[in-house]
Amino acid sequence: KVDYDVCSNYGNWLYSAGIGNDPRENRRFNMIKQGLDYDGNGDYVRLWVPELQGIKGADIHTPWALSSAALSQAGVTLGETYPQPVVTAPEWSRHIHQRPGGSPHPRSSKRGPAQHKDRGIDFYFSRKKDA
To answer: Where do Basic and acidic residues bias regions lie (predicted)?
Structure first.
């Protein structure tokens, strides 16, 4: 069963295209973040993009960022069995090596925005920031 709401779908496409009634400047739809937030394990992508079924977990959202060995193990050859990305937007870069829920990818040494996730809202409004 495919769940489909015509109005919601049309509105989401307009939002993704950067048109509509959202007053923010330079807003961009971040497909990587969206995938991690709503399809953390990649099950939805795996259902509709069978070429990527061999990629485990959230890595399915960024196959172009995987090593040659990981792609080979998954049976994916970029440019042959799955296309190279047409565009990689700069705002995607901070999400490429994250896991669902905002935690960094185990292979990444960078700490993502989730580094303060357990501190609560008071952390952001207090004067002392070294806690």
So the answer is: 115-131
